[in-house]
Amino acid sequence: MFSELFLPVLMVIFMLVVGGYAVAVLDRLVASALGTPQAGGIWLAPMARGAWLLTQHANATEAPDWRAWRLAPALYLALAASGLAVVPWSASLVATDLITSVVLWGSVEALATVVIFLHGWSANSLLALIGGYRYVALGLSYILISMFVLIGVALPAESLQFTQVVASQEGLWNVIRQPLGLPLFLIVGLGMTFWGPLNLADSTDLAGGTASEISGPPRLVWDMARAAMLVAFSGVAATAFLGGWLGPWLPGPLWMSLKMLAVLSVLLLLGRLLPRLAPERCVTLMWVVLLPLSFIDLVWAGAVALWE
Amino acid sequence: MTLTTLLLLAAALIGIGIYGALSQQSFVMLMMGLELILNGVMLAAVAFWAFSGAGAPEGQLLTIIVMAVMAIEMAMGFALVVAVFRGKQADMTESLTGLKH
Amino acid sequence: MELFALLVILIVVLGAGLLVQWLPMRHQPRPSWSQRVPFLGGGTPDSHAWSRYHVRYYSMTLLLIAFEMEMMFMYPWAVVFVETGMKAMMEMGMFLAILSVGIVYAWREGVFKWQ
Amino acid sequence: MAVNRLHKLASRGSVPVFPVLGKQGDGVLRHLALSPQIELVDSPRYASVLLVAGEIPADRFEPLRRVHDQLPYPFTTLWFRSEPWPHLERVARIDDLDDLPGALVTVHRELMEGRRDSAHRLLPDKPPNPWEGEGDFGQGGEGMMGGVPYGRPMAMNMADDIRDGLTLDSLTFRLGPFFFALPPGMAAEITLQGDLVQTWKTQLAPYPQPLDKVFFDARERPVPIAEVELARARHHLHRLFHALHLAGLENVSLRTLRLAHGLSTSSTLDGLRRALSRSGFFRLTAGGGALGPEQARMIGGPAARAAGMDDDLRSEDAGYRRLGFSPVYQAEGDTHARWRQLLDEIDQSLHLARLAERDKIHTERAGSVETPRGPWSERRPADASALFDELLPGLEWGDALATVASLDVAALADQPVGARPSGESRAVGGGTGSDV
Amino acid sequence: MESMNHGLGVDIAFLLLAALAVVTGWRVFRTDSMVRASFFLLVSFIAVGVIMILLAAEYLGVAMFFMMAVEMTVMALFMVMFMMNPAGLNPMNMVHQERIAIGAGVAGFLVLGAMALLAAFPDQPVPAGLEPVRSLGNEMLGDSMLIFESAGLVLLTTMIGVVVLSSHRGRYGAAAEGSMPPGLEPGSDPAGKPEEDEEGEHHHHHHHH
């Protein structure tokens, strides 16, 4: 009973906490590397920020949808947790090994759009509402690209299970076998965690967008959920494209965390280097440029899977 | 979790869907009722697939086709609402007598 | 059994998210009305933000629901692709071609622009 | 015991400051952006210290009270070179720019460790309209769309949508003088339908912006061209800093600010220009807002040159002619063209400054000078914020704010930078005037 | 899939999920805020999806999640766009012919319930070793390939129909401008033009079509 139930829960909670902290520290490292000096110790700053948010009072708007407003950050955190639960750390060490874990990750992405819109809507304030609605345009567009790319990954594995997907990359990692896959999937990752160029939900021109009316503990949970979703996404990207736990010499989980850190730093770097896209151009880009590219990636993956 | 309990649940969902579709004044809420009916139909289809269909693949395909019907019905329904709303800002089922003008 | 573990994980993390918000706020006073005015750089809104919001991409969303169905068909196809070989590739190629005709038509009609 | 350990930990982080800009306040903003321990935030909800930078005119006191009350507990205020309100107790007032960051850190630390108690709300604790117990079910509203449910009326549809004929609810609100994306001090009444601007009425014009002293001297007597061109380049870089923050490029905007801070004839723009063009700043970000010919003539200066008009007072000046100056201009006149124009002008100014410094050339023609805001012959360039009223309707929210950030509409102040407004008694303390 | 052998945990889970589905289904029509209504429906769909997973139809259950998440988001957008008082700030009663609706609902439930209780359905449970996704895939590409391709065609017609109906500004300019119904005989003035349009070509936005 223990290993069946409590081990997965402990694993996911451990990944959430350590992953969230790693994202905060890595973000500050990338910022100071790119020239924004960071005050105080980079390792201590996330703790100090969390403590400050816990002591700050939570804000309220005039007539919010209270339950949905408090539920949305927690739901986003729960989605990140279910994403992390599906990531395999080694052939046997995986929190929940569903037969259709690839489809479950697709539904986590779709439900993330629902939760972010709910967070923007339930504050009943203008800037949050615009942020929520703008994000849904992006949120509904990146789902298709993500699914084409993930189906391309599932082709050689002949199954929708992440452990099988990793097993199918025994000979060659998908990042080399399907070259278009990882770049497209990184764009989906930026969209899903509204980070950097695709940050239409909590952008600076909306004074914080969906999060412009929250402060104190709700904002702490929202930031932690965003960091956790970044970790979950980098886990899935490492599993689908970088061969998960496969790798010479080092043990499986160590390889997995190295690959996740690599994907995380690429995402954080992209987030700092690229300006925010205009929403209209973003939707057109997704549908007219990236979708055909994911078609090509799928056909490429099919051809390679057939001739192997 | 026997076949009858599943069918009772599906019947309950279909009942609520019928109530919703008939009682709501707004076109969009009426479509919510239809969605709930199709939800019950899908549950019944899977229940039959699992208990008395010996896992026949056609059962799953039927469920996917019902989902396709739900998606298409919803898309066309909202497109009609947009077209009608652009004509005359009406959303109540009573006032939508004619589609022509 | 994995499903049960997944549900437990969801419930535990959801509870943790709500608890972290609720515990510190238990003894915080309800903010005053002057603090609850939405932030507009010192300005005030005339009405509630909740309104019949004029979404500008509504035809894109409708197009998406129809296109989303393709996803439903493609996952099982991916599982049996290697077994069935070239036949599967041809069938899915036809399926994708049919639906991409719809997208090219929508693009020509300017559906992806802000209506 | 655990609580004050939390407070002690909280006091060690960076100081979240929400800056409210008064006259000559944006210089303070740029100075603080460079100090690492201060974190300038976009919304009062994210701050624990409200910094009032520069003197706030009386017609903006009401919005300032609103913003003051929107900070969550525990918070406090700090007044820089402006008179704090009498009824705020134990409020710090700073006049010297150099010890402002230090003062902010100490105020924040005191606040976190409880040595300084939080400021109190100024406005009464009353809903915008009384609603408890009124209306059909006591929520202050009647019927479907009537009454003031929970204190505010419901949004009604005022006018047809200007683009796709669906008449849905439009949201009217006033975007205040302290919204960081607008030029300091500007307030406007905006009507949106969805995120598309239907109408834009500028209500409070932005504060007149002070220019470098060298432009004032250039009107009386010949001044070295190198100094004029460096001041022009610094002004453009400061505007680029605000726009890049709005576009989400934090690091590049701080790099622009550092470049402006230590600007000399030897500094170049190439690294920055490559970073911007490679990141797609000129193609994929929010754009739009193309100026018509008469609008361009009305505003003048770089914005007009971005719209294809090549009039520049410098081309009539013999000194510039000797340096081989010819005005650079774009064609489209929209937001991206204005940014390309700005970068070209900075490049040109640095090039002219290098040549002029080598040959010690001075301006010849006194009486009129081409300021970064526009030509200044007999009258100072006036405020052009009325331009937004016709330019912005029809733009999406992001495009509208990008257009506002790209257009320099504020009028020129009668005093150069750093000179205290006549009303102030004490002259500015240590700090050199020019670096504000 | 041991979940099929009717363990106690599975039965409890089923009862909880059934209650959740019915209650949220009921709340859909009882709540005032449209966004809450659509997301209650989403919760009801998710509950049905989890029940499907319990029934060993793994793929269908999880596919329900992402399919319904997208549809309910779009449903929420449109309900807020077209419904008066979308956020339910003024509690409203948008119901008509209440009695008939309740009667029809209860009647429907009774009829189907009776059928469920009385009819004898063949008892052929799913074979243990069946892989649902693989059997669905083979079925789709093999015997019922025709259904699969015709579904694609129907989806194409839906996409074109949706774009024609909903987008205002097509390639040839706005839909409303200048679009006049054709005359009965070629070249005659448009048939069925309402009288009030006679007073000149003044193009009025509202009642032009």
Entry summary:
The complex is a heteropentamer of chains A (308), B (101), C (115), D (436) and E (209). Helix content of chain B is 76%, strand content 0%.
Helix content of chain A: 55-70%
Count of DSSP-assigned helices of chain A: 11
- The total of beta strands of chain A comes to 0
Spans where pLDDT lies below 50 across 5 or more residues of chain A: none
Series of secondary-structure elements of chain A, N-terminal to C-terminal: HHHHHHHHHHH
What is the C-alpha radius of gyration of chain A, as a whole number of Å? 19 Å
Helix content of chain C: 55-70%
The general outline of chain A is globular
Biggest interface, residues from each chain: B-E, 75 and 88 residues
Structural class of the secondary structure composition of chain A?
mainly alpha
Keywords (chain B): Cell membrane, Membrane, NAD, Oxidoreductase, Quinone, Translocase, Transmembrane, Transmembrane helix, Transport, Ubiquinone
Membrane topology (chain B): Multi-pass membrane protein
Subunit structure (chain B): NDH-1 is composed of 14 different subunits. Subunits NuoA, H, J, K, L, M, N constitute the membrane sector of the complex.
GO biological process, one term (chain B): ATP synthesis coupled electron transport
How would you describe this protein?
- Chain B: One of its GO terms (biological process) is ATP synthesis coupled electron transport.
- Chain B: Belongs to the complex I subunit 4L family.
- Chain B: Its EC number is 7.1.1.-.
- The complex is a heteropentamer of chains A (308), B (101), C (115), D (436) and E (209).
- By secondary structure, chain A is an all-alpha fold.
- Chain A has one domain.
- Helices cover 70% and strands 0% of the residues of chain A.
- Chain A has 11 helices and no strands.
- Chain B is built from 3 helices and no strands.
- The longest helix of chain B is centred in the C-terminal third of the chain and has 31 residues.
- Chain B starts with a helix and ends in a 14-residue tail after the last helix.
- With 436 residues, chain D is of the alpha/beta class.
- Chain D folds into 2 domains: 111 residues, Rossmann fold, CATH 3.40.50.12280; 280 residues, Cytochrome-c3 Hydrogenase, chain B, CATH 1.10.645.10.
- The C terminus of chain D is likely disordered.
- Chain E has a two-stranded antiparallel ribbon with strand order 1-2.
- The C terminus of chain E is likely disordered.
- The interface between B and E is large, with 75 and 88 residues.
Task: Give the tags.
heteropentamer; B: 101 residues; mainly alpha; Helix Hairpins; 3 helices; elongated; E: 209 residues; Four Helix Bundle (Hemerythrin (Met), subunit A); 2 domains; 6 helices; extended; disordered C terminus; transport (chain B); oxidoreductase (chain B)
Question: Could you give the topology of this structure?
Answer:
The complex is a heteropentamer of chains A (308), B (101), C (115), D (436) and E (209).
Chain A: H1 2-33, H2 45-55, H3 66-85, H4 101-121, H5 126-157, H6 162-168, H7 174-177, H8 181-192, H9 217-241, H10 252-273, H11 279-307
Helix pairs in contact in A: 1-3, 1-9, 1-10, 3-4, 3-9, 4-5, 5-6, 5-8, 5-11, 6-9, 8-9, 9-10
Chain B: H1 3-23, H2 27-51, H3 57-87
Helix pairs in contact in B: 1-2, 2-3
Chain E: H1 8-30, H2 34-54, H3 58-82, H4 98-118, H5 132-141, H6 145-166, E1 169-170, E2 173-174
Antiparallel strand pairs in E: 1-2
Helix pairs in contact in E: 1-2, 2-3
